[in-house]
Each structure stands twice: as structure tokens, then as C-alpha cells.
Amino acid sequence: MSGYIQEDIAPEELAQRSELASSIAGSVRELIEATVRTEVGASDIAEARRLIEAATEILRKDQLPGAYGIRFNSDGSKRSWGNAVLGRRNPIAPPVVLHHEPDHTWTEVELGPAYEGPAGLVHGGVLALILDQLLGSTAEFQGVPGMTGTLNVRYRRATPLGQIRGEARVDRVEGVKTFVRGTITSAGEVSAEAEGIFILPKWARGEVSDVLRKSVGEG
Ligand SMILES: CCCCC/C=C\C/C=C\C/C=C\C/C=C\CCCC(=O)SCCNC(=O)CCNC(=O)[C@H](O)C(C)(C)COP(=O)(O)OP(=O)(O)OC[C@H]1O[C@@H](n2cnc3c(N)ncnc32)[C@H](O)[C@@H]1OP(=O)(O)O
């Protein structure tokens, strides 16, 4: 399946590229938040647009032909830098950093004004997005990796913008299917619960080497 790329990068070079990716994405993330909250007038908007367009032109000088894909070093470490939830190069991503414990996976992340749905509250689709990745990565690290087949989310109470905690664990593995459960907690209370079924697709069965299955970390 295209998009899964073997690309060996030496550790020092990788650390440098990783730092560059996080730094530019962080700046753009700040720009997004500033855009949501700005109250400046037409002339400041025009000036800001001019500078943003100039920055875009610099970044366009050297571009990948398409999406980033998922890249592996031969030691099994993995880079999902374009990922909409985790991607260190992606300013749309909060970004979520996952911590894989032996029996569960967790994350704590700050969701600011760019993730608003109802006034002052996190958009339900954003919570579903985070739960999809959290549960999917839990399946990948503690069960069998797979595409999301089914994701059910129950929103129990509103989730205010700000710090949230996500936690997930594998419920069971049945052949190519991994059943995972997870929660979003906000201010000490569970605000959303999810159950997901992650399925190793036909195209990946028998082809996925152990090193890819158990690849370490987002990179
Ligand atoms: C170098 C290669 C590395 C490959 C790694 C492998 C997987 C790659 C994927 C991701 C891994 C990594 C981590 C990230 C994880 C999550 C983050 C984000 C996830 C997403 O953002 S992902 C995008 C949204 N997602 C889709 O875009 C899926 C579109 N869809 C399909 O790609 C197929 O539809 C698929 C694969 C779902 C099934 O297709 P299939 O042909 O492989 O499966 P098949 O028919 O053989 O069924 C086998 C058993 O699953 C049951 N079953 C079938 N479909 C079901 C469903 N929907 N719900 C519940 N159960 C289902 C059957 O009933 C049978 O059950 P039983 O065996 O008990 O009879």
C-alpha cells in the first residue's frame, strides 16, 4: 500500500528535522489561534495576509509531491508527521502526544479556541478525532494494528476548552479485530466514552512484518 515509506534517517539528522518540523508547526498553530481571536482592522489584516503569503511562498520552494505518508526507519521507529492528530509537522494537529504504558495508553493535551464547537466547549468531532487516534494507536501498540472499522462515542457531559486527558485500553483481540475502549476526562470527570473496533485490512494481512507492527513511537 503506497504511503508507507521506508526512509532511513540517521539519529542526529532526524533530531534536527524533528525540531524543525515542531518549530514551524508550532508557529503556524499560534497563527491559527491568533487568527481565531484577532480583533484588528482591515489594514492590519491586509499586512498580516501579505506576510503569511510570503511565508507560504518560502515553504513552497521545496515540497513533497503529496501527503507526508508514514515513514519508517529500519530500526522500526515511525514518523507520522502529517497525521491530523499526532503529526508534529501538522499545525492542525493539537498535537497529541501518546504515552504507551504496558496496559493502557494516555495523553494530556490543551485544546484551545481553534477546537471550539458550542461556545467555550470542545467540538464533538474534535473529541471523536482524538478518540479515534488514541484508540487506534492503543490497538496498534497493545493489540493488532488496524483501520477504524467502527467507532462509537458517547458524549456524557460538555467538555470545556482547555486541558483534557484521554485514556484507552484494549478490551480484547479477536483475530484481525482489536476492540478498544477509551475515555476523555476533563476537570476530573469523564466527559466522553468510546468503543472502537480496529481491523487489520486484507491488504496488510500476512505482509506486515513484526518490526512495522510494533514500530516504536510517533517520532
Ligand atoms: C506496511 C503496512 C503497515 C500496515 C499497518 C496496518 C494497518 C494500517 C492502519 C493503521 C494502523 C496504525 C495506527 C493508527 C490507527 C488509527 C488512527 C486513525 C485510524 C483511521 O483514521 S482509519 C480511517 C478510517 N477507516 C477507514 O477508512 C476504514 C475503511 N474500511 C476498510 O478499509 C475496510 O472495510 C476494513 C479494513 C474496516 C474491513 O475490511 P476487510 O476487507 O479488511 O475486512 P473483512 O471483510 O475481511 O472483515 C474482517 C472482520 O471484520 C469485521 N468487519 C468488517 N468491517 C467492519 C466494520 N466496519 N466494523 C466492525 N467490524 C467489521 C468482519 O465482519 C470480519 O469479522 P469476522 O472475521 O468476525 O467475520
From TrEMBL:
Q: Which SUPFAM superfamilies match?
A: Thioesterase/thiol ester dehydrase-isomerase (SSF54637)
> Which reaction equations make up its catalytic activity?
dodecanoyl-CoA + H2O = dodecanoate + CoA + H(+); octanoyl-CoA + H2O = octanoate + CoA + H(+); tetradecanoyl-CoA + H2O = tetradecanoate + CoA + H(+); hexadecanoyl-CoA + H2O = hexadecanoate + CoA + H(+)
- Cellular component aspect of the GO annotation: cytoplasm; membrane
Swiss-Prot/TrEMBL keywords: Apoptosis, Cell membrane, Cell projection, Cytoplasm, Fatty acid metabolism, Hydrolase, Lipid metabolism, Membrane, Transit peptide
This protein's major location comes to membrane
Report the leader peptide range. Answer: none
* The Thioesterase domain, residue ranges: 120-189
Q: Which GO terms describe its molecular function?
A: hydrolase activity
Q: Does the keyword Membrane apply?
A: yes
GO biological process terms, alphabetically, are: fatty acid metabolic process
Gene3D superfamilies the record matches: Hotdog Thioesterase (3.10.129.10)
Q: How does it sit in the membrane?
A: Peripheral membrane protein
Task: Write down the top EC class of this protein.
Answer: hydrolase
Known EC number: 3.1.2.2
Q: Where in the cell is it found?
A: Cell projection, Ruffle membrane; Cytoplasm; Membrane
Concerning its family, UniProt says: Belongs to the THEM4/THEM5 thioesterase family.
Q: What name does the UniProt record give this protein? A: Acyl-coenzyme A thioesterase THEM4
Give the originating organism: Gordonia jinghuaiqii
Species classification:
Bacteria, Bacillati, Actinomycetota, Actinomycetes, Mycobacteriales
